[in-house]
Amino acid sequence: MTPFCSFLSAAAAGDDDIFPRLVVPVSVIVVLATHLATPMAGNGMKLELSRVINGRSRLGVLKGIGRTGQHSLEVPGCLLYTHLGTVPHLTQDTLHTVSNLPSVTQVTLSNIAEHHEVLEHFKDGFRKFAGLHDTVLYCSLHDPAAPCPTGYTTNKTVSVWGSPGRIELTVAKFMALQKTVQPDWYQSMADGETWQNNTSRKRVQKSVNRTLAHLDECLLVHQNSQELEGVEVFGVVEGGDILEERVRSARETAKRPVAGFCLDGLQTGSMDQDLRNQLTAAVTKELPEDKPRLLQGVGHPDEVLACVEAGVDLFEGFFPFQVTERGCALCFNFDISPDPERAGRAPRAVLELNKEDDAARDTEPNGELDLDQTQTMYFEINLKDKRHQDDFRPLVEGCGCYCCMNHQRAYLHHLLVTNELLAGVLLMIHNTAHYLSFFGAVREALAKDRLDLLKRRVLGKRGGMDTSAKEPRD
Amino acid sequence: MAAHVERGTDSTTSIKNMSLKKSLSAAASLTLQIVAECPVTKARACNLMLPHCAVNTPVFMPVGTQGTMKGITVDQLEGLGCQICLGNTYHLGMRPGSDVIEKANGLHGFMNWKRNILTDSGGFQMVSLVELSEVTEEGVKFKSPYDGKEILLSPEKSISIQNSLGSDIMMQLDDVVSSTMTGPRVEEAMHRSIRWLDRCIAANKNPHKQNLFAIIQGGLNADLRKACLHEMTQRDVPGFAIGGLSGGEEKDDFWQMVTLSTDHLPREKPRYLMGVGYAVDLVVCVALGCDMFDCVFPTRTARFGSALVPWGSLQVKQKQYAKDFRPIDPDCQCPTCKRHSRAYLHALFKSDTAAMHHITIHNIAYQLNLMNSVRQSIVEGRFPEFIQTFMKRMFPSRDQYPSWAVDALASVNITLE
Ligand SMILES: [Zn+2]
Ligand SMILES: [Zn+2]
């Protein structure tokens, strides 16, 4: 495989001026990291792995999370995606029709930053501000489902995009925000603009260095902030598509007193799955076993499965929202029960309909075919399609969600063509429930050695991945 | 002579049988139990028994134009205590069409609403929404905005669609003219509405489970109103609506037409005042003897961030609420007020449509609670006091009371303090 050259020489060749610590000997850095770790000791978060398959896929429970440590989260799993603490389209009543909701809610600084002054006034933290009572709060930088224009990061700042436009964050501003948000976990400030094709090696190195520098600065402020006592920091692994930089970023981040890792710059659309697999596997290999790895920006079921195999524990749960926004319902099959009688309990796929979808899409008059077209058609049904107008079946036969228990495709079709707000509500309920059940199936498959069966179910007739895979740069 | 007597006997018997049958069929689909009548005003509290459940009146009926209540699920609507809501025949007849809804077991099945539904006739939308409509004795002719095809909405067609929708209360097709119009057209419309009522009654395929209401017309002309009332109250319909108002006429004219109508409507049948939903209008018109109301305003205004409160309304999107950490109405028990602050809702309006749902829920709760309080006060014999308290809360001072409301209430023996 690719030889990993020393991160020290790589850093020395890069912009070490902004990251002087990298040129000190390794042993010193280790000591420094240990020293940093001391004041953060005593937190209760613990990852208990019950199985590790092929040395990579991990099944377990993240225990003792949240400030009082009363929550837990099963891995592999996903976080609850929100807009400003609200699952898109849903109120607490409609959200709680979904069972087994993740105990961790994700909010993003791109939503929150513009309300900094309000939160400072409020004083009691974002959770209370948003009327969220019983959840672990994770604060990330960007919204995984919203476009984030590139070209606005500097050595000392990153930018987030909210409703008033761009908001520039320094570490000081970033940490001041965290103090008012008072999350349980937060993603450290990061320069993640290296996902575009052909980003230069120099730029990738710079992003790794900056991200490490941001992390150290964040940690320094963190340790001197009483408001953040008991709050966990997730370090961010960057490195674009350069294996060597990925490994350097992972190794260095792992030396810091972080509670977990965010894998950034690997999101859907930035690279194909094969390349993502290689990079992810190389990164997770460098990360400590006992800390969770959260992969940012990846949500398609097939990608989730591949990334679980590459050692990822957590995903951002934004995919059901994207499906909802295009007027579709998730319908893919993940039933791995060998007992056919159980089939009624787990959602069954609508395979014959998916085939029809192929034909329907070809003739769709306003069919704007996005890049994910070939992938999505196997996972979802498009309810705007006219053939659902007198289809009185639930979205997915056997689905126990509020939408499927109470409504029919014809009604959803009607709500979509008349642009009624209830369409988003009902689709979001179904898609969230379906997606969460899929993660349940992933865990069950890991527990029962049925991952291959699950892959066959989820991928349907698609079989293998794209074969024109790109190699990582080394 | 003998034959005449016989015939007379026969006809008496058959009339008795007919009226017995009628009252039986009426009992099966609609009964009105008067629970209490205000000793001072014309207000009354009733239990309106409809096919899907009992409705406590006075009642505000939220409008779900397209077979959905603006982002609120049927369970949420039921949770708010809503016992009857509206669907629009024109919209639903266009999309998804009555054949689809019929296959879904009516509008109840299509939207999975277990309580009562009232549908309008479609005539009002036709005249107000569709430019190229033409009214003849046959019906309303218009061009479909979807495919440009010419469609005739006749009384028979309107009832046929409403029969497919399966609503608990159907409205007759009436000849709608602007409430500010005067002259012979108003009279023509009134007479035509009477003729169309007879055609609607004849066309109703489900009189045993779908109640057809007549709509009193006559514009702002008291004589025409009276003539219409005189004719329509002779028909055997289970309820009456007061139509042709709330269309931009002077409030002084409005309330006089309302009170004239309730004066001539039978006590034992429900009275529905169409298109009225502002809080002050509701309280005053209950005092004038109306039982049922509907309006798109509370749900429409919610989507623009306007929350209804006992002191008027609160524009959540305004900057002044960005740091206001109180609920919309500290006394409101709705799910929105129990959980969220004005500041959070203000912020959420910039991020997600759920902000609208929160206000919609609050506004429906506000309307339903208002009517519950009105009813409670009637039952407990303190409606006059309720009105005094309500007005004091709604307006900062006595001189801001709208004069029409003062006059209307004076006409039913309430002198505002
Ligand atoms: Zn479902
Ligand atoms: Zn409220």
From TrEMBL, chain A:
Task: Identify the keywords attached in UniProt to this record, alphabetized.
Answer: Cytoplasm, Membrane, Metal-binding, Mitochondrion, Mitochondrion outer membrane, tRNA processing, Zinc
Q: Name one GO molecular function term.
A: tRNA-guanosine(34) queuine transglycosylase activity
| Binding annotation for Zn(2+) | 399, 401, 404, 430
Q: Where are the transmembrane segments?
A: none
- Stored InterPro entries: QTRTD1 (IPR028592), Queuine_tRNA-ribosyltrfase (IPR050852), TGT-like_sf (IPR036511), tRNA_ribo_trans-like (IPR002616)
Gene3D superfamilies, alphabetized: Queuine tRNA-ribosyltransferase-like
Q: Name one GO biological process term.
A: tRNA modification
Topology relative to the membrane: Peripheral membrane protein
An example of a Pfam family matching this protein is TGT
Q: List, for all copies, the residue spans of the domain called tRNA-guanine(15) transglycosylase-like.
A: 58-461
The UniProt subunit note reads as follows:
Heterodimer of a catalytic subunit QTRT1 and an accessory subunit QTRT2.
List the protein's name.
Queuine tRNA-ribosyltransferase accessory subunit 2
**What gene is this protein translated from?**
QTRT2
Automatic annotation (TrEMBL), chain B:
Positions bound to substrate: 120-124, 174, 217, 244
What are the GO MF terms of this UniProt record? metal ion binding; tRNA-guanosine(34) queuine transglycosylase activity
The Gene Ontology biological process annotation of the record reads: tRNA modification
Q: Which Pfam families match?
A: TGT
Q: Chief location of this protein?
A: cytoplasm
Q: Does the keyword Mitochondrion apply?
A: yes
Xref: SUPFAM superfamilies: tRNA-guanine transglycosylase
Q: Which reaction does it catalyse?
A: guanosine(34) in tRNA + queuine = queuosine(34) in tRNA + guanine
The Enzyme Commission number assigned here is 2.4.2.64
Q: How is the quaternary structure described?
A: Heterodimer of a catalytic subunit QTRT1 and an accessory subunit QTRT2.
- Read off the HAMAP family from this record: Q_tRNA_Tgt
Q: Which family does it belong to?
A: Belongs to the queuine tRNA-ribosyltransferase family.
Q: What is this protein called?
A: Queuine tRNA-ribosyltransferase catalytic subunit 1
Q: Which organism is it from?
A: Monopterus albus (Swamp eel)
